[in-house]
Amino acid sequence: MSLVLVVDDETNIIELLKFNLGKDGYQVVGLTNGRDAVNFTEEAKPDLIILDIMLPQMDGYEVLRTLRAKPETSAIPVIMLSAKGELVDKILGLELGADDYITKPFSPREVLARVKARLRRKVSLSIAQQEIKPSEIIINHLIIRPEKYEAVMEGNKIDLTPKEFELLHLLALNPGRVFTRDILLERIWGYDYARETRTVDVHIRYLRQKLERDPAVPEYIETVRGVGYRFRATS
Question: What's the mean per-residue pLDDT of the chain?
Fold first, then answer.
């Protein structure tokens, strides 16, 4: 049985999601403040977190930032759930490592569908990582270790968010192949973010800043104008 943590300062929303997710066989724990959410996640390691933004003690952004910074909690799927529906709020949540973003008011059926999609993807990624041989990808001075969600450049570990790592891993596994923004959104975020293609550009920009000697003249991640991105090994 999958454990879902719901963090929201509105107890009626917690009870609504407990009821609807519980009917589908999920174990649900509800918390009303951000600090308790961090402590619980570190101890219980829930399979997925539904996280509001406006929380007492620690807001949802700070909770997400804290969890993504710790190896033991960095890969737990997080769905942001908030009344803040502006594009800039969605972009910020996704940049910090959220896997999905739902605005209030919401349909419980939609939340359930998103939870199922996230957990299926988590299982698929786990299976795929177990099947990857070799366990390391070495391209020039870059080493990618999928099992550890770790990338090393010239002996130095690169500080990547889970989504940045998944982008790098996917591109590096397919050198020379061009991925459109829509395909990257579907493959990395799990479903069609048709109106959120800027998310890919933002993540690629941050990834280049961490990976490339000169982000303006990238050696690894190349832009294919009008199409998308591809990975190329340097000679």
Answer: 85
